[in-house]
Design a protein that fits this description.
12 strands; Deoxyribonuclease I, Chain A; 6-stranded mixed β-sheet; about 20% helix; alpha+beta
Length: about 230
């Protein structure tokens, strides 16, 4: 029987909104609006010091029905180089890992295998480099790893690709193995023109809808808007 689920990707800008205020609870309210089953976050940890999580665990537990995937990297961090995965309570985490990728700036990828009621799905979350040369190298490395994963189970990738050029660069690398969705412009949140936030999927998943989450709250909470997609898996 086909199973339906919704994913979302959201660069939360370390919780700092367009009003320059850091408000983790506001980010969580946006996630409640989006109402996805699986969420990949970027810039989810502070960049310096202990790199503590922007979203305190007690806030996540008390204000949402999400659970962070335990990446087991740093005690106070939720993610890996700012990348994190949240899943709706009840979704079992079969495995999780962090991936080192070629980088100029500190970058990494997080991945998890999730049980969606008897159907396993591999998820990759990422935030690619500002440099076009490094973005291509990163996309090539990630696509190769995800291509291996899709031979075992349906696979979805998402994140802030930092790619402005349509049908080139990182998009071309991912497009060799996966369908690259275009949910719409998500950056800058006040006047979105950049299609930087993307979701990609293998042929085992059928997309039923996708888009950018636009609301007054989302326009204020971060400099990016969340993007989302709904899938069915046989």
């Amino acid at each position: 029987m086909a199973r339906s689920f919704k994913v979302a990707s959201y660069n939360i800008h370390k919780g700092v909104g367009t009003d320059r205020k850091r408000d983790p609870a506001r980010i969580l309210r946006v996630l409640q609006e989006v109402d996805a089953d699986i969420v990949c976050l970027q810039e989810a940890d502070l960049r310096f010091g202990t790199r503590a999580s922007v979203l305190p665990r007690f806030l996540i537990e008390s204000h949402t029905d999400y659970v962070p995937v335990p990446l087991d990297v740093q005690h106070d961090s939720m993610g890996w180089h700012g990348n994190a995965i949240l899943v709706r309570a009840g979704i079992a985490v079969e495995s999780h890992d962090i991936i080192h990728i070629p980088c100029l700036e500190p970058r990494g990828v997080v991945t998890a295998t999730l049980d969606l009621g008897g159907a396993s799905v591999s998820v990759f979350g990422m935030h690619l480099d500002l440099s076009g040369l490094w973005r291509v190298r990163q996309a090539r490395a990630i696509a190769a790893l995800a291509d291996a994963a899709r031979s075992q189970r349906p696979t979805v990738l998402m994140g802030d690709l930092n790619e402005w050029r349509a049908n080139s660069g990182a998009f071309r690398e991912f497009g060799k193995h996966f369908t690259v969705l275009d949910p719409g412009p998500s950056f800058h949140s006040r006047r979105p023109v950049g299609r930087l936030d993307r979701i990609m999927h293998c042929g085992a998943l059928a997309v039923t809808d996708c888009g950018v989450h636009r609301s007054a709250l989302a326009a204020a909470a971060s400099d990016h808007l969340p993007v989302w997609a709904e899938f069915t898996a046989g």
